[in-house]
Write a structure and sequence with these properties.
249 residues, alpha/beta, seven-stranded mixed beta sheet, elongated
Length: 249
């Protein structure tokens, strides 16, 4: 049993260290709050932890028999490691393609824009090339207004309604965050006036705002959407300094 537990400990330590380092880098680079919440990736995380930290080392504990020849033991461990690598590769690929690249203000809400959301082969215009997405891009705050041309804007709206790419997925329309300050200020509302939240959620949000020392009846909130229930983003209406993210559940 000592041999088995030693093999289990080495396997568990190596797997946990590799997973912790990988997830730590992704979290610090792209998924720090509220990215991880809005991207809603618990299933992927569960698979990675289940296979790489639980199932893999546990299988090693079972098959690590000192009576086996080295060749047989190496073969069995190789199969386990192969399954782990497949699960690990799937998880990392999914996390990488789903990494948040932008927090975009558009029309009447904020939304997280993940790498997989961006229109293929999209590129920012020459004027705003600094806002174009790159593989090394970290999350940025941007303004994504509909174009001034009403016909062009209508095409984008209809495409989004039909399941196509919204303006937030088209970097050619991105503008610096500061450019949308006046528009953002005009869209800040009281919690009760934000239609993204149910009455029950609005009540809970106001309670949490009060607990944080924020005025629940002040027009300083806007919904921040993603793949989970929207968060409430609270800004200082005068300076537009972000004050808090508040969960509605």
């Amino acid at each position: 049993m000592r041999f088995r537990f030693k093999a289990f400990a080495w396997h568990l330590g190596g797997s946990a260290s590799t997973l912790t380092l990988t997830l730590g880098l992704l979290y610090l680079g792209w998924y720090h709050w509220p990215g991880w919440y809005l991207a809603d990736l618990p299933t992927v995380l569960a698979i990675m932890v289940g296979v790489d930290v639980v199932l893999g080392p546990l299988m090693t504990l079972i098959i690590a028999d000192p009576a086996k020849t080295r060749r047989v033991l190496a073969r069995d461990l190789g199969v386990i490691l192969l399954v782990q690598l497949v699960a690990f590769g799937y998880g990392v690929t999914t996390l990488w393609s789903g990494r948040p690249l932008y927090y975009a203000f558009s029309v009447n809400c904020l939304s997280v824009v993940q790498a997989q959301d961006i229109e293929p082969n999209a590129a920012a215009s020459t004027q705003h090339s600094a806002l174009a997405p790159h593989w090394y891009s970290l999350p940025r705050w941007i303004w994504a207004p509909l174009p001034d041309n009403s016909e062009e804007a209508e095409k984008i709206v209809q495409a989004a309604i039909g399941g196509g790419f919204d303006v937030t997925a088209r970097p050619a329309y991105y503008k610096p965050w500061e450019s949308g300050a006046a528009e953002l200020r005009s869209q800040l509302k009281r919690v009760d006036d934000i239609k993204f939240f149910s009455r029950k959620e609005q009540t809970l949000l106001k309670e949490r705002m009060t607990a944080l020392g924020l005025a629940p009846d002040r027009a300083d909130g806007i919904a921040l959407t993603g793949r989970k229930r929207p968060l409430l983003a609270v800004f200082d209406p005068s300076s537009l300094r972000l004050l808090a993210y508040i969960e509605p559940t």
